[in-house]
Amino acid sequence: MAKKSMIERDKKRQRMVDQYAAKRAALKAVANDKNASVEERFKATLALAELPRNSSATRVRNRCQLTGRPRAYYRKLKISRIMLRELGSNGEIPGLVKSSW
């Protein structure tokens, strides 16, 4: 189980990403627009730098929804490998069969 503080920190970051997503997208569009003037692009870049760092989507860590484990995360299922194995062994994941030979 991951530390509660780290799980909460990631939740806070995700809320900030959702809050600033539209503003970041608009500023990035202006900054990357080759037809805009150099001054406009520079102002957009400065405004983008003024936004909180935690509003960037790259700062959010993928975590297991059951345990909060940050590593060995399966995106499709949103759980870690350990929970995948445990749930699969219990027969709680449809279509997953534990192999044995």
From TrEMBL:
Domain of life: Bacteria
UniProt keywords, alphabetically: Ribonucleoprotein, Ribosomal protein, RNA-binding, rRNA-binding
Pfam families: Ribosomal_S14
PROSITE patterns, per the entry: RIBOSOMAL_S14
UniProt-listed GO biological process terms: translation
GO cellular component terms attached to this protein's record: cytoplasm; small ribosomal subunit
Keyword Ribosomal protein appears in the UniProt entry: yes
Molecular function as annotated in GO: rRNA binding; structural constituent of ribosome
UniProt similarity note: Belongs to the universal ribosomal protein uS14 family.
Chain's role: Binds 16S rRNA, required for the assembly of 30S particles and may also be responsible for determining the conformation of the 16S rRNA at the A site.
The protein's assembly and partners: Part of the 30S ribosomal subunit. Contacts proteins S3 and S10.
NCBIfam families found in the cross-reference section: PRK08881.1 (NF006477)
Protein name per UniProt: Small ribosomal subunit protein uS14
Organism annotation: Rubellimicrobium roseum
